[in-house]
Amino acid sequence: MKLEIEYDxxxxxxxxxxxxxxxxxxxxxxxxxxxxxxxxxxxIAYNGSSFSPIELNQIYYVFTESxxxxxxxxxxxxKIKERLYEIESRLPNHFVRISxxxxxxxxxxxxxxxxxxxxxxxxxxxxxxxxxxxxxxxxIKNILFGK
Length: 147
Prior knowledge:
The protein has helices spanning 25-35, 84-90, 134-145, and strands at 42-47, 50-55, 59-65, 68-73, 76-80, 95-99, 102-105, 109-114, 120-124, 129-131. By secondary structure, the chain is α+β, with helices and mostly antiparallel strands. The strands form 3 sheets. Strands 5-4-3-7-6 form a 5-stranded antiparallel β-sheet. The protein has a 3-stranded antiparallel β-sheet with strand order 8-9-10, with no helix packed on it. Strands 1-2 form a two-stranded antiparallel sheet. The model has no long low-confidence stretch (mean pLDDT 85).
């Protein structure tokens, strides 16, 4: 994706226009940045009536299970209240969706392994394995190899 920035001094001071041919996840991230100019580097996890902050760099992956969203980190599996697409829009670029149900932090991936079925196995530093779906394999390859 190519980015060009043009300044139009005839626009009102509180208006920024972003034009794109099709919707892309980067548009969501830019929009979120405008809505929340000071993005947080934490996610709040809930456990009954208590909650705890988890720093993004401690999160291995975010996933859905039984219609709930969880983060997996060095503290284990913890529930969050945001939906997967909501959390995806505010995560940094090293968090990548690998299926409809999982977003992985690439900083925790130790190695990648291709399968015969056209999928990729992500071996995490905590010894867990995650699997891309075929529909997300191309996206992962583009991110890794810049194609």
